[in-house]
Amino acid sequence: MDVLDIARWQFGITTVYHFLMVPLTIGLGILVAVMHTTWVRTGKPEWLRMTRFWGRVYLVNFVLGVATGLVQEFQFGLAWSEYSRFVGDVFGSLLAMEALLAFFLESTFLGLWIFGWGRIPKKLHLAALWAAVIGSIVSAYFIIAANSWMQHPVGVTVGEDGRPRQVDFLAVLTNNTALAAFTHAIVAALMVAGALLVGIGLYQLRRRKLAQAPTTDVDQSVWRRSVRLGGYVSLAAFVLVAVTGDWQGKLMYQQQPLKMSSAEALCETEAPAPFSVFAWGKLGSNECDDVHSWTVPGLLSFLAHSDFETAVPGVNDLQEQYSEVYGATYPDDPSFGDRAGQPIDYTPVLAVTYWSFRLMIGMGAVSAGVAAYALWATRRGRVPTSRIGVYGSLAAVGAPFVANAAGWIFTEMGRQPFVVYPNPDVPVDEQVWFFTAQAVSPGISAAEVWTSLISLGLLYGALAVVELFLLVRLVRRGVTTGDTTPTPPAVGSSRRDDDAPRPGDDRSDDDVLSFAY
Question: Is this structure's pTM higher than 0.85?
Fold first, then answer.
């Protein structure tokens, strides 16, 4: 592989890895804030215990997400310097606001929430958590706005050097591509968090049932409420994912038709166009004419245009159109390396776009099915003991993670060979686009990128082990005795060494970091 291919693998691996943490941080943060709000309003102890248990899970994931996210911005300057120069005038403001406003907002107020148990007023403490959660959501919006500009450049003009110059920051922030992608990502994050509550909650309920634990105590209520909350959130999020996904898909057909036709392996323009349920043939070789599908007539026309008759352009026709407009070969320019003067294949890898699109939908449906099972299995106070059902639900926690990752792979791989996709809504002479082949740093060698890829792979593997160890430890421990009291003793409080422990008293709570750990 050449430098470009290795650099793409590195960015893809680190990005997908980091994105495993992002939806859980956003979704679980929202649910923990809801739990904390419910406890402050009702004073019920089960909501306090839920807040503290799920809050620990949230914090572990947040820390690992920050650690893995730092690498992303460094890669812009290391392996993708030409890309950074091209998009810098647009990305500079977005990334600065993400770091200075959103990230510091969530980090500062999350610190207040961690250290503020029993040290600041309840409502102020709750407000700190909501500020941190809102900060993470705003942070996500700035990042998605930057990515959406790459998918659909708006608010810029082309400078004399051929690079985009930002002229309308509000247009960049209100890009319809960003609005659709953001809403889709947020409800998908809630599906991830809901699946986690369902899987772990069912596991704990079954374990307590087999241990013949009382069915009327607070801990039982913690896990039951977790399952019910997670189930309802997952089902509602699945419906909203479908709605926002339909919105996003219709925009993609307007802005990136080749991506969507590739996702359906639609070779020729058809009216009405069928939706492919399953395909076989030479997907991997991009020989579209040798691909065969089992289809649903007319459904693709409806998904693209909201009717069952309008034509949908095929891959072969779009390939010809793109070649006429943007060139049949790469420019004979040293910045393109070995690809200079070579033919351009505007069709994404069919196997990747086709199957990642279906994996995204399929895993989302699995998660919704598990949520429905959980709600049915815990109806009217029931506790499921089926090993297959409970452990299957626990394993299905990974389904929405896979769906989120597959969605991003589809989004990013589907716009190749562009790293900045041309906006079809403006005349060609005013469009901005940038090929991936010219985006890689010119002075970097294959050996250097291999070294960083292997190093990051080993580091990320170690971090995965650490996170899984911490999460498994938290799940097995369950609700601790320290979770029964909202106000741990202040540091330096007087208590005789010979004091006998009282019910619900855990001396480890003298440590201000006991909640975090």
Answer: yes
